């Protein structure tokens, strides 16, 4: 039994910034994992339909690869199938005739089964879920520690400084992207050579042969150019919205806040997204899939200048509306489910905290809370 003198009997309320009820890294992982799964299940059908419409319009014919988004991260997929639609990896080439997005949803569901709306999802989740978990847990751990340090000499309940989510978001994304970049490159190489997971060493050997160890992070620069600023802007905006609401975030409020923050971050970073998409596809087609590789001559900065010279500022914001339509719901679903998971574990930790107290201390604290 706990000694009364060692009990922290300050009045308490269920606050995410109260270290007594703060969720553990394991609980953060569980919340992030569940959020990642739910996000991918809701968002993937939108991208599958988009890819099927592009394939119908012959937009994929000239390319060796395309970007596939499951709501968590972008994945490079190769277009090296036989094109007869019999291979399960060639789901994007199945014969079809759609008259728009809604018609595509209906026809795919009726003729191919509802599971076809999640075509190609499973292989991408092998990387996307761990990467998302690393990102969210890193962000939460950094944010709480920086906020504790910044507010250590200030009264309890002082709002966190806005530089805390900014630094935490940028650092967490930098860390997560750096960790997952070599794995995504290996996955792309395995797909292009039709290798199984038991033959991962073959893909690694091929990459090292032409690019060396540093080549495993090829393409990381354009990714960081987009994702690091996006993450910083997103978390500052979202955390500010939480402070405005006194940190009383319901599922609905988190959903709307995540959607708004995602839209703002997507708007600001769209030029980086245009460059990143161009560089990623070009790199995959010329340096990863092709053997021996044809190394790129253009730098990321030269690509930005080229797009600007040809199409002006408008060219750097190509695809802004479709990107916001894709990013906003993904951010909303992910952060709302993550916050819901955090709240669940915080309530659990609060109950455990109360259960460990002597009855007279618990009653005294409850009476104090009831009068505040």
Automatic annotation (TrEMBL):
The keyword Membrane applies. Keywords: Membrane, Mitochondrion, Mitochondrion inner membrane, Repeat, Transmembrane, Transmembrane helix, Transport. It is a multi-pass membrane protein. SUPFAM superfamilies: Mitochondrial carrier. One of its GO terms (biological process) is mitochondrial transmembrane transport. It comes from the Eukaryota. Solcar repeats lie at residues 23-145, 160-244, 249-344. It is found in: Mitochondrion inner membrane. GO terms for cellular component: mitochondrial inner membrane. Its main location: mitochondrion. Pfam families: Mito_carr (PF00153). Gene3D superfamilies: Mitochondrial carrier domain. Belongs to the mitochondrial carrier (TC 2.A.29) family. This is Solute carrier family 25 member 40. It comes from Nezara viridula.
